[in-house]
Every structure is written in C-alpha cells, then in structure tokens.
Amino acid sequence: MLFSLEQLFTAVNPFVKRANHLVGSVVLQAGYFIVNYILAFLVVMWLNGIDNNRIGLFNVIAIPYWLKVIIGIICIDFVNYWEHRVTMFGDYSGGCIGCVTVIR
Question: What total number of domains does the chain contain?
Fold first, then answer.
C-alpha cells in the first residue's frame, strides 16, 4: 500500500497510465490485509481454545515456563527447516529451481 502511495505522489504523470494499476493494487492490498487479519484472529481464537481446554503436551506435563519457551522455539525452527527442505528441490545457488520459486 505504501508503494502505491509513493508512486501516486512522486510520479511525473501520476494518472496517465497508472490509474488502473494503482486502483487495482490498492484493492488487492486491502483485500490481503483483511484476509490476513481474519486468519490471524482465527488462529488466536483457536490457540486460546486449546489453552482453555488444556489440550496438548505442554499442558499435560509439568515443566518450567522458560523450558516450554525454549522447546517451543526449537519445535518451530525444526518445522520451518523441514518445510524448506521439502518444498525446495535444491538451493538457490545450485541452478535447480524449487517449487516455491516457480510460483513467484
């Protein structure tokens, strides 16, 4: 959205050929913002429900809070590592294009 505003105010001829593109960009970015806000709200509500109902391994065993934080960070890092390993056929410098790069 900020890029669109920058283009609007700094362009020499802001409305000659860019008006349709600018309106489309603002509408799409607003849509992305609304969808992401709704999804984030649903995730927070889901996690609050899990916490209130005492579901999950961290609610079953009694360990200190600092250890829960460290284990949680390690688990997130582990999942993120394997997500990147699975979705990429090779690295960025190897010449083999992964499926994530193809989508872009």
Answer: 2
